[in-house]
Amino acid sequence: MTIEAPRDFFADIATADYSAQRTPLEHPPVPEIPELLLEWESECPVPRKRAPKLQTAEEVERELQALREQYAPFLADLAPALQSPRSRLELKTFDWRVEEPEDQRNFLSAMEGGGKWETIDLPHYRPPLGKAATLYRFEF
Predict the structure, then answer these.
(1) Residue 74 near residue 81, CB atoms below 8 Å
(2) pTM listed for this prediction
(3) Rounded to whole angstroms, what are the CA distances from 11 to 7, 8, 14, 62, 122?
(4) Higher pLDDT, 35 or 25
(5) Which has the closest alpha carbon to 94: 121, 117, 124, 125?
(6) How far, rounded to the nearest angstrom, does the alpha carbon of residue 69 sit from its chain's CA centroid?
(7) What is the pLDDT of residues 79-99, one digit of tens each?
(8) DSSP output for the chain
(9) What is the rounded distance in angstroms from the CA atom of residue 66 to the CA atom of residue 58?
């Protein structure tokens, strides 16, 4: 009795020769591009005054401020604020504490509020604690 391996349809697709069934691609002819020469004017049609070289940081800041004022009308945000149909709950205040050995044995106790928790606001920055895990908790 011989056992046949199941047919692999994806292998059949990958190894099939479809070249005889397809018409080859036709390359379009290369278009003829006319040779155009543009005249070069040595003089700029609008004379420009060269700006003086800025020497100090105060001069740079003064020029930047002038440019900010000049372009302020173009940078104004005139779009109306979009109203969101979703209600939003900002998660900012959390309970926090350093993980204790008891938490590794009974994590459910920590999630139910066991242990000493401290109320903090995000972003939350503390000095390095070494190799320690910390827990954050928020109740809805």
Answers:
(1) no
(2) 0.37
(3) 9, 5, 5, 70, 54
(4) 35
(5) 121
(6) 30
(7) 998 888 888 888 889 888 888
(8) ---PPPP-HHHHHHH---TTTSPPPPPPPPPPPP-------SS-SS--PPPPPP-SHHHHHHHHHHHHHHHHHHH---SPPPPPSS------EEEEEE--HHHHH-HHHHHTT-S--EEEESS------SS--EEEE---
(9) 12
